[in-house]
Amino acid sequence: MPVLPQPLLSSHSPPSPSLDALHPSSLLSRHSSDLLLDPTRSNVVTPESSQSSLVNSPTKDNSALNNVLFNGNGNGSASSTAASRRGTISKGYKGRGRAWGEGEGEEDDLVEGAAGMEGLRVDTEMENGGWASSRRGESLMNDGGGGGDGYGGERLRILIERPSTPQISSNSLLRPTFPPSTSSARYPPPSTGLFGLYRALRAKLSLFTLQAGSMAVSSLFLGGVVIFALLNKLLFLTIPRFFYPRAPQVFEWDEPEKWKKEKIINDPQYYAQNAGLELEETIVESEDGFYLKLQKVIVPNAPVHSDGRGGFPVLIMHGLFQSSGSFITSEERSLAFWLAKQGGYQVYLGNTRGVFDMGHKTYERGDPRFWDWTIRELSMYDLPALVDAVIAQTGYSKIGFIGHSQGNGTAFVSLSLGIRPDLGSKLTCFVALAPAVFAGPLTHGFPFTVLGRMEWRTWRRLFGVLDFIPIMTIAYNLAPQAAFASLGYTMFAFLFDWTDANWLLRRKGKMFRFTPSPVSSASIFWWAGKGGFATRKCLFDVGLDKWFDERFPPLSVYYGGRDFLVLTEPLLDRLAEKETEVQVMRVKKLELSEHCDFFWAAEAVEWCYYDILEDIESTRTRYPEEEELEQVEPEVLIEMAV
Question: Which of the listed CATH numbers 3.20.20.60, 3.40.50.1820, 2.60.40.10, 3.30.1490.20 matches domain 217-624?
Answer without folding.
Answer: 3.40.50.1820
